[in-house]
């Protein structure tokens, strides 16, 4: 198993560390050449979605990434990665993300919450995070914090508004692995 991590910008190294800890090989996608390598799944990290979107287009990666996901490549988007998959960006998931959704005061916070499919509370670090304002057909809501949807799944696509790669708990990455193997 080999997982590609989009490494144009943002918290990509933290995902690599997380995957190392659960014994999964990964490599970085920095350009269209890297994209050609064999991959069993893709991670889109947190960062700044406007910058990431621009880089995806500038590097001519936008269409290849979207087509691969629509053809069934499993994908896990965290924070800005969640925004990238929503209907206004790559458009592969039937979700609408609300950016910087918690206002200035609550933009960044830590909590522990329930996550459907993981049978204990998991740590959740939010950094100028989005939430999912609405979901459409085929979307399964996995976590709700203070009334806002912060994790969801649609087929082989997984998104979290928080950053599981910034805490010690590997549960969400392991959940993604299970998804890939289903
Ligand atoms: N606020 C960022 C955006 O809108 C997301 C923040 C993050 O990924 N930590 O893209």
What does this structure look like?
- This protein is an alpha/beta fold.
- It has one domain (2-181): 3-Layer(aba) Sandwich (Rossmann fold).
- Helices cover 27% and strands 34% of the residues.
- The protein contains six helices and eleven strands.
- The chain has helices spanning 12-21, 32-35, 49-58, 62-70, 80-85, 171-181; strands spanning 2-6, 25-29, 41-44, 75-78, 95-98, 108-115, 118-127, 131-135, 140-145, 148-154, 157-160.
- The longest helix has 11 residues, at 171-181.
- The relative contact order is 0.17.
- The protein binds glutamine.
- Glutamine binds at residues 46-49, 79-80, 83, 99-100, 127-129.
CATH fold type: Rossmann fold
User: Main sheet, how many strands, which sense, barrel?
Assistant: 7 strands, mixed
Strand content: 25-35%
Low-confidence runs of at least 5 consecutive residues: none
* Topology, number of strands: 11
Distance between the termini: 13 Å
How many domains, in number, for the residues? Answer: 1
Which sequence of SSEs, written as H and E, runs from N to C?
EHEHEHHEHEEEEEEEH
Helix amount: 25-40%
Question: Looking at this structure, what is the CATH superfamily?
Answer: Class I glutamine amidotransferase (GATase) domain
Number of helices: 6
The CATH class is identified as Alpha Beta
Anisotropy-based shape: globular
Q: If classified by CATH, what would the architecture be?
A: 3-Layer(aba) Sandwich
Q: Give the class from helix and strand content and strand pairing.
A: alpha/beta
